[in-house]
Amino acid sequence: MRTLDDLGDLEGRRVLVRVDFNVPLKDGVIGDDARIRAALPTLHELQGRGARLLLAAHLGRPKDREPEFSLAPVARRLGELLDTSVPLAPDLDHVPDGDVVMLENVRYEPGETKDDPALAQRYAALADAYVDDAFGAAHRAHASNHAVAHLLPSAAGLLLAREVRTLQGILEAPQRPLVAIVGGAKVTDKIGVLEAFLDTADVILIGGAMCFPFFKAQGHAVGSSLCEEEGVEPARRVLEAGGDKVRLPVDLVCGEAFSADTPVTAVDGVDVPDGLMGLDVGPRTAQAYAEVVAGAGTVFWNGPMGAFELEPFAPGTRAVAEAVAQAQGTTVVGGGDSAAALRQFGLEAEVTHLSTGGGASLELIEGKTLPGVEVLS
Ligand SMILES: Nc1ncnc2c1ncn2[C@@H]1O[C@H](COP(=O)(O)OP(=O)(O)OP(=O)(O)O)[C@@H](O)[C@H]1O
Ligand SMILES: O=C(O)[C@H](O)COP(=O)(O)O
């Protein structure tokens, strides 16, 4: 991958920097600015080399130019972090001059998600060089992170390079044992990742609602648990192929509804009684998983162990998060909900690498080629 050093002298030159500032936003308030902060090293490095920055980013999935998808709150936050004002260009024909300028949501342009070469030409006309630091969007081939990279001297930013290096390191040369912790809601979203880990990991710990298709495949009762029907066959295949490598919970914490006020029932075993739903892994599971994590050379964690947003069902995810935080081995966490869980427990600084990518990190682990990365090679 080409790096910032390959761009040569940047003094006075305008660099188009694609970033992933797709942050949670509600009523104009940013819920978590981690993705903005993660781009700062690249921005500081480019500024230090005398470059003028033109930032490009997407926000959400606008259909038209709906104002709630404006990057204005993001530009304001970036201005605070860089201690400068960051004007927002309303469109590509009205880009103000300045040391740090931001384009409006690139998805306001109809050609963006079509990887339109004509739109890419318009982006390229605005700059002398291109840097892609948008790791979280690297699994997309869009005009601002793919087509444009062919048209300017281009390179990977520091964040994108570190993400790729770290995640590929897990695939290619992990310290063993490699322990994969996979949780979250849907097994079908993560089947590719589980299949990849069947080849590469030494142990796969499964948690979250995605354990129920596994239990169903084994003939257990799942009660009213969130259980994806289309996930049952894939889960059966993973169990058959994985043998002892695949570990499932041995106890559960259940409720009557997905609510913090529901009566809580501990179940020692994995048959969920009628009328109850499994909402967390139980203490024996949490302890067993924590012991495996403690002995790991490398840990990759994606997806919570339960409905961690609800206090009564947070302990399983908290125990795993604490074990990951304390582990001596290399620890890599990918995915928005696992990152949110780490933050909820105040442990985000305790892992080796907290990926800014959800889909992008999973696709990389699956061994897929990411268009936004390939184009920089
Ligand atoms: N047993 C359960 N029952 C119901 N919901 C659950 C259960 N376990 C986890 N969840 C929910 O699953 C959601 C997370 O699932 P998801 O698959 O989106 O995780 P993720 O991989 O971290 O997501 P992303 O890829 O967006 O980062 C959480 O909101 C959590 O409440
Ligand atoms: O949040 C993400 O995963 C990335 O910013 C990509 O967003 P997208 O799924 O809307 O393309």
Automatic annotation (TrEMBL):
GO terms for cellular component: cytosol. The keyword Hydrolase does not apply. It is found in: Cytoplasm. Pathway: Carbohydrate degradation; glycolysis; pyruvate from D-glyceraldehyde 3-phosphate: step 2/5. Monomer. Belongs to the phosphoglycerate kinase family. This is Phosphoglycerate kinase.
